[in-house]
């Protein structure tokens, strides 16, 4: 699964997601700044200078509210927030990602998305929320496409399902740490910015019932010459089973072989 670059609008899939598959694939998005649209502010000890929080997924993953075990998120209200000045849509978009044999996952509505921001105390212009939701949904659709690329190499006839997922903001994966170290050693060649978010998705293979964990690192990439922002997703099976290790080695070997043939 090689690197793929594109400049799609929200409704156009690139030619991602959740990237050689051991490298990252870039996705441009013309309707937002070149980073995750939300700043998650982890309160810190008082200092004389405000701390700039890292950008992360807008949905809370703390334990202060009842948590849905399938997505590790609290139930989000559709009611307008206090002091909200503009009406926001409450319709939820159905994703292309199978939840089980008869249903697909639904994305939060703009109102739910906004309520999640307010709940965390983040000031967000209401007129930008719908664009943020589009970007959020777009990135997750691309992540699923990348997962399908991995899964089709295991069994082309398999129709995997997303059983559950968990956001892990602030937890840097071992691979992301490696790229940060590479960026520190060779800043002119490698990106030295950490991913702005991380998700773990548990994919179920219907034919066998096997569950496979995928790690998704979300990056902001340098913008296009016209200013259009670019997002990069690194999607791969976690190295927590023999089968996944075999997948990763096979993909890396294939990428090296392809590169060797192209340069011969």
Automatic annotation (TrEMBL):
MF annotations from Gene Ontology: holocytochrome-c synthase activity; metal ion binding
Biased composition (Polar residues): 1-12, 41-50, 61-78
Record region (Disordered): 1-106
E.C. number: 4.4.1.17
KW Isomerase (keyword) present: no
Role summary: Lyase that catalyzes the covalent linking of the heme group to the cytochrome C apoprotein to produce the mature functional cytochrome.
Protein name, UniProt field: Holocytochrome c-type synthase
